[in-house]
Amino acid sequence: MKKLRGFLTLTRPANLVTAIADILAGIAVARLFGASALTYNNADVIYLCIATVGLYGGGVVFNDIFDVKIDSVERPERPLPSGTVNFNSAVILAISLLLTGIFFAFLCNTTSGIISLAISLCALTYDKWSKHNPVIGPLNMGMCRSLNLLLGISIIPSAINTVWYISIIPIIYIGAITLISTEEVRGGKKLKLYAAACLYGVAIMVLLFFVGKWGANLWAYLLLTAFGAIIFAPLVNAIITPEPSKIRQAVKVGILSLIALNCLWALMAGQWQLAIIIIMLLPVSLMLSKIFAVT
């Protein structure tokens, strides 16, 4: 049982739920902008949800694999440095998850498959090299989430050509969270936290523009307001008192709030049923976050 928990901890289950929310949000947007080409079926939705779990899970497991020496000093309680999970077993798990993700993406369609390959490449690049760069690292991680949103949109491939530009939001937003996370072990430095706050502000302003452009309803404006308040509150606390615990809380809230962001996309697209399904994932993710580490 301890070993199983170790394997699950490596995949960060609460985060996997947010990845599924990305897919559903992408599908909602695709339904709005690709309505004339609604050729997918329910199986395709399932394929993409399985694909994102595999891709995200494989990516975060590889992150622990490449960080095993650092974690042995900074986070010895993690499954690999603690010996709960064997190193070779973790490698097999990571490879299996990525291949599973790619396989199911191609089952949906070729465009989805190509995007899954791009996600895998971006994830491995981040895990092995770019995360150590203060500029390229956050940009790289943002690209992973951006591509994941596009993976959902790719359920109707033609929709990507129309609405690809919304993928800039995950780049900005996740870039901010990644900046915050670089201080979660030692804390103390406020510069990156201020930079993250600026990126949050930019993301909110761009979202506000999209809400107006798409002619969204009052609920979308209310959710955007709540989303901004939720993500800024813990970040402000971390800026005031830049301790590791407060910074980790800001990261956790930022990641879990992706579900609210994805619900916002669905509301903006007028897809109420998908919006309800997405927001229902929030308590699931919150519950899992109390059992397994998010960062």
From TrEMBL:
Extract one GO molecular function annotation from the record. Answer: transferase activity, transferring alkyl or aryl (other than methyl) groups
Q: Which keywords fit this entry according to its UniProt record?
A: Cell membrane, Membrane, Transmembrane, Transmembrane helix
Classification via InterPro entries? Prenyltransferase_related (IPR050475), UbiA_prenyltransferase (IPR000537), UbiA_sf (IPR044878)
**GO CC annotation, single:** membrane
Principal place of residence: membrane
Q: Which Pfam families match?
A: UbiA (PF01040)
Which N-terminal residues, if any, form the signal peptide?
A: none
Taxonomy, superkingdom: Bacteria
Subcellular location(s) of the protein: Membrane
- Kindly list the residue ranges recorded as spanning the membrane: 12-33, 45-66, 87-107, 162-181, 193-212, 218-238, 250-268, 274-293
Membrane topology, record value: Multi-pass membrane protein
Q: What is this protein called?
A: UbiA-like protein EboC
**Protein's organism:** Mucilaginibacter agri
